Amino acid sequence: MSQVLIESVSAVIVDLPTIRPHKLAMHTMQQQTLVVIRVRCSDGLEGIGESTTIGGLAYGNESPESIKQNIDSHLGPLLVGQDSANINAAMLRLDKAAKGNTFAKSGLESALLDAQGKRLGLAVSELLGGRVRDSLEVAWTLASGDTTKDIAEAEQMLDLRRHRIFKLKIGANPVSQDLKHVIAIKQALGERASVRVDVNQGWDESQAIRACQVLGDNGIDLIEQPISRINRAGQVRLNQRSPAPIMADESIESVEDAFSLAADGAASVFALKIAKNGGPRAVLRTAQIAESAGIALYGGTMLEGAIGTLASAHAFVTLRQLTWGTELFGPLLLTEEIVTEAPVYRDFALQMPRTPGLGLTLDEERLAFFARK
């Protein structure tokens, strides 16, 4: 059989409205911006991928604009003419020629997997070793910053059977104010829901020592990235003394970071994000490191749309255990879609398609409407 070559790679920036402002420690989102990637192959098939970050450069080193530029000018041309079925060789070629750029690489790897799945008639999860579950429990982030609104929103989600895990974005306000906010929500929800917090590196170690103790004593199940990723020794100390498990998120910007964190004992839970590892295949390498070290797993998100969310999900459904579930709620934060059929959320979980590739088809008309001109 002759090789099927990559004929073209393109990227388009898409701006989509959200249901409400989404407040994080470092940024408040008023909309979400996706980079949609299309890889066309010589057999006529097309793979789609997505590279999405949060708040321009507020979160990390890549922005939608830099992702598109680097794909158009550097990464895409390296793939043109390569064997589209040999995803390993294609990604190694990118890694050799370009350092970092994990968000861009993740979208490209997702697109290559989508095309190969369509070619073979297999879901991406089967290309990644085979799924062991057909759904993933999904957390919801309460990020209005208003205690009364957040409680009402959580109650609605419980009534709808859409979410029973809630994560609170804190770290932008004084610590005492944040603690009061979180404890009030946990008291209102009680044992009906798991309540967790994400500090997004918002505290220094002196603040985190007391705050983690208070949160753990008041029934908070998980504390995500309370201090700077640079303060590795502080992360180790907090992980040793906090009554609630500490989860590493921003600390993991590569597979190598995961190995270093595990070796140091800096966290008892890892947040898995395909964008920060360089793709679905890469994030599974981080998961293997965590499992080998006895570290629990959580399926994280960069608040991707449908394409990036399902690319993550296809990797996560192959994992032996996701102790802390996932937060793949990105499509639910958007008021508009650019695919013909949106992902299905039911009974507190994202339901996984078994159709070939990622299981999605672009809505060309809506994509063109929301594409940045």
TrEMBL record:
Pathway entry: Aromatic compound metabolism
- Keyword field contains Isomerase: yes
Q: Which residues form the Mandelate racemase/muconate lactonizing enzyme C-terminal domain?
A: 148-245
Q: Which UniProt keywords apply?
A: Aromatic hydrocarbons catabolism, Isomerase, Manganese, Metal-binding
Location of the active site? K169, E327
| Obligatory cofactor(s) | Mn(2+)
Q: Which SUPFAM superfamilies match?
A: Enolase C-terminal domain-like (SSF51604), Enolase N-terminal domain-like (SSF54826)
Query: What biological-process terms (Gene Ontology) are attached?
Result: amino acid catabolic process; peptide metabolic process
Any Pfam family: MR_MLE_N
Annotated GO MF terms: chloromuconate cycloisomerase activity; manganese ion binding; muconate cycloisomerase activity; racemase and epimerase activity
Q: Which family does it belong to?
A: Belongs to the mandelate racemase/muconate lactonizing enzyme family.
Its name, as the record gives it, is Muconate cycloisomerase family protein
Task: Give the source species.
Answer: Aquipseudomonas guryensis
